Amino acid sequence: MPEGPARPPDDPTMRAIVEALIFAAEEPLTLEDLVELFPGVDRDGLGAAIDEVARACESPGRGLQVIRVAGGYRMTTRSDLGEWVRALFRSRNRRRLSGAALETLAIVAYRQPVTTPEIQTLRGTDPTGVLQSLLEKKLVRVLGRKKVVGKPFLYGTTREFLAHFGLNSIADLPSVEEFGELAATIGVAAPDPAPGTSFEEGNGGDDEDGELDDESEDESERQDDGDDS
Predict the structure, then answer these.
(1) Contact at 8 Å (CB) between 115 and 153?
(2) DSSP string, 178-194
(3) Structure pTM?
(4) Measured between alpha carbons, how far is 206 from 204 in angstroms, rounded to an integer?
(5) Residue 142, phi then psi, degrees to nearest 5
(6) Domain 99-222 belongs to what topology?
(7) Residue 71 carries which DSSP code?
């Protein structure tokens, strides 16, 4: 962190700094991040600076907006300009989530905490390889183990998942049908549940009936691909 001036920046300078930080941050910028950077500025003043940056981006003719995702703030392109942004990424042959990956991700999102065998029951195919890919992309994580024979790993979504889909929390997940429409905007097919099943049977990540066990898995276990699930 650079050494700050003897007194806090004036309002216009603070707004410019906050705008630059939101733009440059790899993860959504939180108010706590700003409090740490500017210990001499009160939280209300920092919150006001964020609000002013967001309002400035709402001006006509702007291509960017400030949205609240994953508990913080991120600068994104305006949704009504999405067609042009998607065209750019398609022209650069951007690597997207496969249909299988999106389907597995949807199951994890709507049924978490969920195990590999439970995902396989819904999809009808072994999801081990897809889960490993989602773990590497940091879209899912190991929450712990289920208290059943074999103690399989329980999977849930991550903060990166929220940021990727522009959600502030799991509570903001759309319906499965709306999720399919969202999937279409990123160039993959909408996920379909297996016959007679529903993605929305899960509890959104709460520990139900004590099924979570030993959430403090070591790093090697968190990178496990689920073979023993």
Answers:
(1) yes
(2) HHHHHHHHTTSPPP-PP
(3) 0.47
(4) 6
(5) -85, 125
(6) Arc Repressor Mutant, subunit A (1.10.10)
(7) T
Annotated domain spans of the chain: 11-89, 99-222
Task: Give the residue among 168, 166, 171 at the shortest CA–CA distance from 182.
Answer: 166
Bridge partners for 55 per DSSP = none
Pair 140, 156: CB distance under 8 Å: yes
Closest CA to 26 of 65, 70, 80: 70
Amino acid code (one letter) for 195: P
Ranges under pLDDT 50 in the chain: 1, 4-7, 93-94, 186-210, 215-229
Please tell me whether residue 21 adopts helix, strand or coil conformation. Answer: helix
pLDDT in tens, 106-130: 899 999 999 999 999 988 899 999 9
Contact between 145 and 153 under an 8 Å Cβ cutoff? The reply is yes
CATH number, span 11-89? 1.10.10.10
Identical fold, 11-89 and 99-222: yes
Report in angstroms the alpha-carbon separations of 221 from 111, 136, 154, 163, 184: 21, 13, 12, 24, 33
Task: Give pLDDT tens digits for 69-83.
Answer: 888 998 888 888 878
Tokens linked to 89: 């990424």
